[in-house]
Amino acid sequence: MCVSAFIVIDEADAVAILADTVWDHYGLATAGTLRRAGYQIIGTDIEDEGELIPHSDRHVDVVVCSYPEALALYDQLSRAERRAVRERLALPYERALRLFDPRHGLNQEPEVP
């Protein structure tokens, strides 16, 4: 289970990438902060209808946690099962997303509960 992100140089670079994508919010975290928190960063591509989106070459996934073992594929689960999975994974996702919290500067690490 991953958080989708782009590698950027600085906040101005992040704003430029945001203008070329479908997202309208962003937060910043350094790769070092993410790695020190125990997250793996993996380069990935994003496609839309078989075409790479702009800046796909700078896209990464931040691995938050493994998909729960012994579960069917997410799209094969019932609505109730999906809700249970989301509730079960809410805390790990919240911890990861707090590292991207825009209220914190690039060189400050937010407190992770």
Tell me what you see in this structure.
The chain has 113 residues and is an alpha+beta fold. Helix content is 31%, strand content 16%. The chain has 3 helices and 5 strands, in the order βααββββα. The chain is globular.
Question: In brief, what are we looking at here?
Answer:
This protein has 113 residues and is an alpha+beta fold. It is 31% helix and 16% strand. The two termini are 20 Å apart.
Question: What is the 3D form?
Answer: globular
Strand order of the largest sheet: 1-5-2
- Content of β-strand: 15-25%
Class based on secondary structure composition and strand pairing: alpha+beta
Distance between the termini: 20 Å
Helix content: 25-40%
Total count of helical runs of at least 4 residues: 3
Question: How are the SSEs ordered, and which strands pair?
Answer:
Blueprint: E1 2-6, H1 11-19, H2 31-36, E2 40-43, E3 47-48, E4 51-52, E5 59-63, H3 79-98
Which properties best describe this structure?
113 residues, alpha+beta, two-stranded antiparallel sheet, 3 helices, globular
